[in-house]
Amino acid sequence: MSVRHTEVTVAPAELEPCGQPDHLDCGIRDVLDRVGDKWSVLVIVELANGARRFRQLQRAIDGISQRMLTLTVRRLERDGLVLRTVYPSVPAQVDYRLTETGASLTHLVKALADWSLEHRDTIAHARRAYDAQHPDNEIR
Length: 140
Prior knowledge:
The protein is mainly alpha-helical. It is built from five helices and three strands, in the order H-H-E-H-H-E-E-H. It has helices at about 30-35, 40-45, 55-60, 65-80, 100-135, and strands spanning about 50-55, 80-85, 95-100. The protein starts with about 25 loop residues before the first helix and ends in a 7-residue tail after the last helix.
């Protein structure tokens, strides 16, 4: 499968187990911690359309607080996915853009979004059926 492959197939992918005694930690947990949280993915989606200033990001990402956006872009910058550029002006102007590494994530995020749209009705139906069978469950 190529890096650019985004087609969802029915058969499970061949994956090596992480964290097993015979398989060293492959780093997937560390990466998923970053790109797996909802704010990072939404920032990546927004920056896929080009550089944005902080307030533009905040307005575009419904529900994100100033503090959470600050933490998110700092973490993405630390991981080399986002580039923060400060322009010498008064007041200082700052923008954020995806690095080449960050941009390479966008096709994966798009594939996940496409998969989510394709399967959301099936997932909603499965949740309703599960909740009906397990009325006292606290998963919701």
